[in-house]
Amino acid sequence: MKKSFAILLFITALFFSLSRAPESKASDEQYKVGIDDVLEIAIIQPEDLTATVCVAPDGSISFYYIGNIYVKGLELCEIKRLIEDELSDGYINYPVVSVFLKESKSQRFFVYGEVVKPGAYNIEGGISLLKAISMAGGFTKYASFNQVKVLRLKEDKTGYMTIKVNFKAAMAGEGKADIIIKVSDIIMVGEGIF
Question: Most buried pick, 7, 17, 76, 120, via CB within 10 A?
């Protein structure tokens, strides 16, 4: 009985991990690297060198043999090819390189005003307004539901547009009111009486 339960548990875990792996890999490969992101880069063949690097404010990283290379806005597979090309150019014959996103620090949003923990937060997957406020510890006792707004970077990046939020509707479960937070959004929670 115990043996069949253990086999069933193993098969379930294996199925779950296999069914989720392609989704995770695809999203990582399409991720565009930004400033402050942390990457793990390894030369797998012919040597075994690994480095953890942070994308500098100028959008570059520094790596063995090749020095600084500009990676901001590139996908992980593009960075892999770029490093392999640079290494092949007189340093290593037929290098095999892997590039992984160790920590995303460029994909952030900000919460300010009457929340318990104001500051910057990483976007991991789709984060709604309610979840964002929750990540910031929720409202303080001085916060107002009627004084919540989102500042969103304009497409031409010349400034911010203001999105008025009906927070009570979002809490009541109205899907359209609970907007999805985007990179660089600033959530402002004002002071007032509930």
Answer: 76
